[in-house]
Amino acid sequence: MTRARAGAAVLAAITLVSACASEPSPPAGDSIVVFAAASLKPAFTEIREQFEADNPGAKVEFSFAGSSDLVTQLTQGADADVFASADTRNMDKAAQAGLVDGDPVNFATNTLTIAVAPGNPKGIKSFHDLVKPGVAVVVCAPPVPCGGATEKVEKATAVTLSPVSEETSVTDVLNKVTSGQADAGIVYVTDAADAGDKVTSVPFPEAAQAVNTYPIAVLKDSQNSELANRFVDLVTGEAGQKVLAEEGFTKP
């Protein structure tokens, strides 16, 4: 190779490297991770189908658990793009830890009910009946939103429950009832409805004094904040609200 050709080759290589260096880095993968309260699983799973249809190539991965457990994971460094809590208390914890980008948006409310075995063999008709001898009751642990709401009902009714177990999510409470490990469980109306004929729901008026509000927010460390915001917009918009209403949630 002549010196002229060698010089041209070097120049071309430098030009190519410079061009590559000046190109913008590729965008983050078209996927987001959503940390969501366990009670949102049926609704959010359906909302995901609509979201992915509206955003071809985009994917949504969920982590469903008790809201208090999700906050603990986030504060310990878990990667996520969106957080949807079953109460404002746990969202406030996330905000105070500097994890939330902007103001959370309240998108749904939920109310407690008593889930019992089909046909209600123990004859439970009220919250007071949960302390009758021979009734095994399971509830959410106090840090969990459904547990905090249960405590409010206990104070309002002056009834102190003696649960056989305290679970870390409302779905775990429901599973205890459907599997026969408990006679009754305090769950959300949406969970009891989703269980269908596996349980009988026993509403009680005092539940109106312990309504939980659900907020949602994009997280500061999101690797795809644009897509995360689109998901929040869908949940809080008309289409998402329709799905939530069909699942038994009410507007805040």
UniProtKB/TrEMBL annotation:
The UniProt record lists the keyword Cell membrane: yes
Superkingdom field: Bacteria
The entry's keywords: Cell membrane, Membrane, Metal-binding, Molybdenum, Signal, Transport, Tungsten
Leader peptide range in chain numbering: 1-21
Protein's membrane topology: Lipid-anchor
Molecular-function GO terms, alphabetical: metal ion binding; molybdate ion binding
Any one annotated GO CC term: plasma membrane
Subcellular localization, as worded in the UniProt entry: Cell membrane
Residues that hold molybdate according to the record: 39, 67, 170, 188
PROSITE patterns: PROKAR_LIPOPROTEIN, TONB_DEPENDENT_REC_1
A Pfam family this chain is assigned to: SBP_bac_11
Protein's GO biological process: molybdate ion transport
Family statement: Belongs to the bacterial solute-binding protein ModA family.
Assembly with partners or alone: The complex is composed of two ATP-binding proteins (ModC), two transmembrane proteins (ModB) and a solute-binding protein (ModA).
Role this protein plays: Involved in the transport of molybdenum into the cell. Part of the binding-protein-dependent transport system ModABCD.
Protein name: Molybdate-binding protein ModA
Lineage, top ranks: Bacteria, Bacillati, Actinomycetota, Actinomycetes, Mycobacteriales
